[in-house]
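Exercise 7. Predict the structure of Zinc finger MYM-type protein 1 from Schizaphis graminum.
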Amino acid sequence: MYFEIFNMLEDVHSLSDNQIAIDSINDGRESNQDFNKLVNELDVNAAERAEELQTEESSNNQKYYNNSSHGNEFEELIFMSSLSTWDNDPAILSKISRFTPEMIDLVLKWGPCQPKSNELPNGKFPKEANRCFHESWYYRKLSDGTEHRDWLTYSPSLNKMYCLYCILFGRHAQKAWVTDGFRQFQNGTIALIAHETTSVHVEASLRVKLRESCMPILPIMVEERKKQVAFNREIVRQLVEIIKYLGYHSLSFRGHREQWSNIIKGNFKDLVVLLSTHSPEISLHISNLQLKGRKELSFISWNQQNLLISAISEEICTIIKSEIKLARFFSISIDTTFDVSRKEQVTFILRYINEFGIVCERLIGMKESAYTTGQALFTLFSEVMESNDLDWKKYLVGQSYDGAASMQGKYNGLQTKVREINPQAVFIWCHAHRLDLIITSAVGSCSTAVNLFGNLEKLFVFISCSKRRNSIYREKQTLRYPNSRIRSIKKVETTRWMSQAFALDTVLKTLESILDTLEDVKNVEGQVDYRVGAECNGLIQYLESFIFLLTANVFKKIFDYVEPVSRALQAHNIDILTAIDFLKKSEKNIFNLRCDTIFQDFYDTAKTTAQDLNFEIELNLPTKRQRRVPRQSGETNSDDPINDPVVSYKVNTYFVIIDKVLTELKKRFQDNTIDIAKDLALISPKLIYAMRKELSIPSDAFSSICENYKRFLNKDDILREYIQFIKSNIEITVSEKLPDFLHTTNSSFEEESSCDESNQDENETDNDLTTNTIQYSGSLLIMYKFFSLKGLKSIFPNLYQVIQIGVTLPISSASTERSFSKLKIVKTRLRSTMTQNRLEDLLIISCESDISVQTENVVNNFAKRSSVLSKALSL
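Solution. The predicted structure, encoded as tokens:
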């Protein structure tokens, strides 16, 4: 503290008269020739030398402050002095190796121990070798009188004399005057004169006198120091709020030119200027910057912007890591993408349950990688885990990636590398990716389906490639649907989930305006460019065909069942049992479509729509030449061709599409997680109620999950707690309302009852995913919240741990895709030169904007970034 005080002394109180500090020591000593010679050797920089010594003292004291034992030594000093007859006995002080500023103030307040002979127990000073201490040594005779030796201190308990100033400030002083004590009283007078003329003693005395001379202004300087630090911290607090605002909204910070004279200085500086109109602190700070320039600590330079951004990001990561360590179990999702500067970015998402029972999926890092092999990704994964101090080798319970070979490869994939070290980190192929692959397979299952989505893509390219055609399309929508919002043609993409559903839905809802647009383009552009006219004719002919309406309605119904499931699988709070339940219900609903009755309903609906729109109302299929197949030996039946176009469509198109979807659903969702899911299903409310009625448990119950997580789970303990829980007859809430965005409200069909071929029990409720409320009694999250709210964690700890692991298992890597969407917003073409660290910090701030950041913690973190910031923001 005194180092900072003496540094401020030049600004607050001029010390140009350095001789005053020297005279405070030298007063009355001019008669001593040796001392005068020493004083003459001290040049005009004597005060500066004293300040350097004070700096060393402050540095040492600061190091001592960092030691946790300094408070104990201060208390020990008070305690030992209370036990001694003399509070200021130097025998106590000589045992202390280092003094804090508080201890120095206390010792100087006590002053030297200079008892008189009549104050001693025997009324005199004890003798040592027939010599004793003399009271007259407390004073020094000079030519103009006597001077009090306020540095000399006597120890009645040890019968020794010490130098108080050298004990406090003497560096490299003789041990006889600091620690051992001086007892050779026969040479006492000579020894006193010799010691008080040494350079070490003079420097120590100079420190004490400078300290005493500065004491009156110290409170003022300390108060000014506190005000300046508080002023700086308030500025940084407001800058933190600006950075949080820009980060949360993924806005740019810097401008092309950022001088104060520029009208537009970038978002960050412009917000600082805007805030200065309402904040006196910011206004004064900007004025100082404009007047003093670089001499003033700005806090808003590009380098300090990065430090502030990093401090906020580090605070968010600290909160995430603390929540993960509290939850213990976590899983990870990793994915890669190219950014705008053609760099491969790898994102890391962690999934865990916080203390409030909320499933969290958090971005913990975004790293650049030149290679995306399984080994390269594993090395990067290990570095991220180590840098965040996460024990993935013990507590990582699951991993979810897409279908890339470098991710899910059985030999050199990332999931294999992770499981070689941590076998319990079960790999789950992203459910949303798998479902999208099923839809892609259905779209290419037959030529009719290929023609449908091929023409949709052709329509998108034809309209979107021209500004004029887009304008006509919008005008036609305004005329046809005046009370509806304007829509745009969607692209059919294989990499965008459910893009086929969105593209088909837009075409069906704006079909009349699309046909009007094509007619207008054909009449205007087609007269000039024959290729445009031919393309318009081809699209119009297909969109007005009956086969288009029938096929579009078939896929529309399939999408009505699948699209809500896809949305549900992308939610972060879905667990593995709920995902499997949704997929089974979707599979059952699609299976119910595979019957003649439902097909006839599709056919009648398409026919009605065609009549309303004056379209073709008959299913005209191209006539193919009949191929004769030679009858094989022993073959009795012949291959009769299907001449009826309706039957041909039903067999070769409708059933093919349905069968393809059902086959892919069964094939792609059969993996190693099924056995674990079966064990977890035993804890679902539905099966618990069933177990209570039957009172029978499968022999292999919890075998798979205990084998995979044998480090944490014991099968016998789990079975014992499971039986006790079943017998407890505790009522469990089994239904929960899903968010509205999971459901569709634009189905073109009424809910059909199941046909005879579905083999569905008439008493069983049809759980349609297009309804507004879905009851999923298999949800593990419900059980987890139930255990937490009812306080069952301590009663059934092993069962609770099973539920926690089950909820922590990842279902999809949708959160990684969301981070890529943020990446495209944060790193744009105009911000393509952004450094990787700044990009990662901004993405964490943007993606985890729901985490409450304590501004004071950010300021303290920012202050630790450099010694200059620490001095400006810390006392």
